[in-house]
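WARN retry 2 of 3 for item q-0093 after timeout on previous attempt; input resubmitted unchanged.
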Amino acid sequence: MSMVEAESRQGALWLWLDRPQRHNALVPELLAALRAAIAAALQEQPVALVLSGRGPSFSTGGDISGFLANASSREELISYSDGLVTELHEALLDLLAFPAPVLAAVNGPVTGGSTGLMLAADMVAMSDQAFVQPYYSEVGFGPDGGWTALLPERVGTAKALQIQYLNERLAAAEAFELGLAADVCTRAELEARIETWVDGIAGRYRQTHRATRQSIWDDQRRGLVRRRLEKEKSRFLELVARPETLEGMQNFTRKRA
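OK item q-0093 returned
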């Protein structure tokens, strides 16, 4: 069974992260399914692409249990981590290159590298129960998923550093104030809010949307993001197999057991 469910609605294609029992935490299989769904969406030419999550969370970043299950040797852990982060970063680049508007319905917490799925979206609606938090400094990972490649441009360098140094939790209202979300509503209203946006998008010339998105996310700008993501991955791999990072992962899972 796929970990990503596709649903056509009002001319838009909704992609649901569908691993609710693990809060849609990222594993290679989920990211491969997401990339396949994005590729398939190119053939459907939807009015918009919408990302959301099944269950209580949007996505809680890389599944720590996945890292620990592949930590029998340093080489195995680095190989697993390389594959996971590569798939995540390629998914973000796929989203940035998508020709139609990309929207995100953030139904619950979004943490770690999954935040990149928000950052790659053009418009984000957040449930008032959702929040954003990095958690990297709690575990010992290097930031991935665009926390250094995309976030500083959105909120400013100083704020991006502050959030990550202090592992700050951004409630939906603060995310809105910082420009990370275009709207905040109750969870019950979230899908309707996105559908209102889709109606507005569909009522205008699609070629204009395509031209706008391709001009903003042109080859040069996406190339810069790719280079920054490659640096994120390199630093992630430098840190992931260190003894203190393994200890941080074990402590993190014990706290949530």
